[in-house]
């Protein structure tokens, strides 16, 4: 009997261990909760629905389950005329957490007025959320947040279906078709917003949704967009158009000469932009055959605008890498500057070098975002799971081949007279710089016939401009105004 009892105990223990080790998430589930918030001085009640929805293959089998959070304002009499804002972050591989919990959503991080973490970690009401004018869904692509791919039994996941520019756009468009259908939003005006790599994503989605799902948009919003036709490509254009960012970051840290430092930032940047386009690009295009006198003059002017020395610029043959700038702008003060937001400072092991040891701004952000999103989803929205929330998920290698997203946006706009574009950037973003964003905006439509449907807004902060209290209000107001301005209001979609 004793042997039987021991055997029975071991069987039960093994069963418990096998269950405990099998962390899975329901493929299709949702939790609904009720909340309230005061936005622009007016109380609003809203419903939060958070859960998972499948991605299906051609045979109707689930190959992934995407985690989302969907906010709808209560007591809306005409849901059909109320906009829907579809929100993505970037990476690729980033969860839909940054804009969700710090920008447009009804709850935001507890941080100081400049965006730095404070304890105890948590969230607070967002008095500037755009939920007053639009419902919002935050989508986590495959392997980000709680989203996961689903391998067939005994097989590995087919990575080509998820992890590349075109694959990403294709399956997300299909998923959005299902989401819009399930939630009865086909008649609503629709807007998509993407941050960083999400800018590339939403440029591509604009045409994919329109031509493959027959879902027409009113607006595309790109926040600190990464345009992979330019980003990390090197060459004369990318190197030259970093100069206005150098000037902005140097101005913030009071590293410019007095005659520039005493001016306002927005009085400086237009002349630096003009010099970058009309002088630095031609100089870099000449390469090693540039006249020595011209090279010396350009280096002198770049030093004047950047806070670096003329010798440093000449040592790099006028093409100064942004990594070198982050490492060396404040070298004499003993600090590095942040990549995504150069207001942030870091301390390296040694002063000399060509790039910082770490990203000062990202470590600061993860400090506050990670505990806040885990607390918020599990304790306030009541979504309970042992699955780890992937702030950054395993999506690499990522396929960047055949990137036609810039032209996809142009074609979508040409085919759809309703479609407008808003670009938002922080002047101190050193990864996807504000002038890169302007350059992308200018290159989408070479004809210039649709330029009145593009709008650019800049802010005195970095990649996540909304972390700064003043810019949180301004940037949300810019989205709110953009949505209200681009509603059709009964006007026909025609030229």
Please provide a written account of the structure.
There is one protein chain. The protein has 495 residues and is an alpha/beta fold. The chain has two domains: 29-230 and 367-486, Alpha/Beta hydrolase fold, catalytic domain (Rossmann fold); 235-360, no CATH class. Helices cover 37% and strands 17% of the residues. It has 14 helices and 14 strands. Strand 13, helix 13 (434-444) and strand 14 (454-459) form a beta-alpha-beta unit. It is globular and about 65 Å long. The termini are far apart.
Largest sheet: 10 strands, mixed
**What is the name of the CATH topology of the largest domain?**
Rossmann fold
Q: Tally the structural domains.
A: 2
CATH class of the largest domain: Alpha Beta
Order of helices and strands: HEEEEEEEEHEHEHHHHHHHEEHHEHEH
CATH architectural name of the largest domain: 3-Layer(aba) Sandwich
Write the CATH homologous superfamily of the largest domain: Alpha/Beta hydrolase fold, catalytic domain
Number of strands: 14
- How many helices? The count is 14
Mean pLDDT: 93
Low-confidence stretches: 4-20
Shape: globular
What share of the residues does DSSP label as strand, in percent?
15-25%
Protein topology:
Layout: H1 2-20, E1 29-39, E2 42-56, E3 62-73, E4 84-88, E5 107-109, E6 123-125, E7 135-139, E8 148-149, H2 165-182, E9 190-195, H3 197-212, E10 219-223, H4 235-240, H5 243-252, H6 258-261, H7 265-286, H8 292-306, H9 310-315, H10 322-328, E11 336-337, E12 345-346, H11 360-380, H12 405-415, E13 420-426, H13 434-444, E14 454-459, H14 469-486
Parallel strand pairs: 4-7, 4-9, 9-10, 10-13, 13-14
Antiparallel strand pairs: 1-2, 2-3, 3-7, 3-8, 5-6, 11-12
Helix pairs in contact: 2-3, 3-12, 5-7, 7-8
């Amino acid at each position: 009997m004793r042997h039987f009892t021991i055997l029975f105990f071991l069987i039960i223990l093994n069963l418990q261990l096998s269950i405990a080790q099998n962390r899975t998430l329901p493929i299709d589930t949702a939790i609904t909760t009720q909340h309230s918030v005061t936005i622009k001085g007016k109380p609003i009640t809203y419903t939060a629905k958070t859960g998972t929805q499948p991605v299906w293959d051609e045979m109707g089998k689930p190959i992934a389950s995407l985690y989302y959070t969907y906010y709808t304002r209560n007591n809306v009499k005409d849901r059909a005329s109320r906009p829907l804002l579809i929100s993505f972050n970037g990476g690729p591989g980033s969860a839909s957490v940054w804009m969700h919990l710090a920008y447009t959503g009804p709850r935001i991080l507890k941080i100081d007025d400049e965006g730095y973490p404070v304890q105890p970690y948590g969230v607070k009401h967002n008095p500037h959320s755009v939920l007053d004018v639009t419902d919002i869904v935050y989508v986590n692509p495959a392997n980000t947040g709680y989203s996961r791919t689903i391998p067939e039994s005994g097989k590995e996941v087919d990575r080509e279906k998820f992890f590349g520019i075109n694959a990403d756009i294709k399956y997300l468009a299909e998923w959005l078709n299902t989401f819009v259908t399930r939630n009865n939003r086909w008649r609503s005006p629709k807007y998509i917003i993407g941050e960083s790599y999400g800018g590339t994503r939403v440029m591509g989605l604009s045409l994919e949704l329109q031509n493959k799902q027959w879902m027409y948009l009113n607006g595309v919003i790109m926040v600190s967009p990464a345009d992979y036709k330019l980003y990390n490509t090197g060459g004369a254009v990318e190197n030259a158009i970093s100069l206005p960012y150098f000037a902005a970051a140097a101005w913030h840290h009071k590293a410019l000469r007095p005659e520039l430092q005493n001016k306002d930032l927005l009085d400086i940047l237009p002349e630096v932009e003009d010099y970058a386009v009309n002088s630095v690009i031609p100089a870099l295009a000449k390469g090693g055959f540039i006249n020595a006198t011209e090279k010396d003059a350009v280096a002198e002017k770049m030093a004047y605008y950047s806070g670096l020395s003329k010798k440093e610029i000449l040592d790099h043959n006028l093409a100064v890498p942004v990594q070198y700038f982050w490492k060396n702008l404040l070298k004499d003060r003993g600090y590095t500057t942040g990549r995504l937001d150069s207001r942030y400072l870091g301390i390296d092991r040694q002063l000399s070098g060509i790039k910082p040891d770490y990203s000062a701004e990202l470590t600061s952000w993860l400090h506050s975002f990670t505990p806040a999103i885990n607390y918020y989803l599990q304790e306030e929205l009541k979504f309970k799971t042992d699955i780890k929330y992937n702030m950054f998920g395993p999506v690499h290698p990522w396929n960047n081949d055949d990137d036609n997203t810039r032209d996809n946006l142009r074609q979508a706009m040409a085919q759809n007279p309703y479609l407008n574009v808003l670009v938002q950037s922080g002047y101190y973003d050193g990864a996807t710089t504000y002038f890169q964003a302007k350059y992308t905006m200018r290159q989408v439509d070479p004809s210039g016939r649709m330029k009145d449907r593009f709008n650019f807004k800049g802010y005195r902060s970095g990649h996540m401009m909304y972390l700064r209290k003043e810019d949180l209000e301004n940037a949300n107001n810019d989205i709110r105004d953009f949505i209200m301005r681009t509603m059709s209001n009964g006007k026909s979609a025609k030229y």
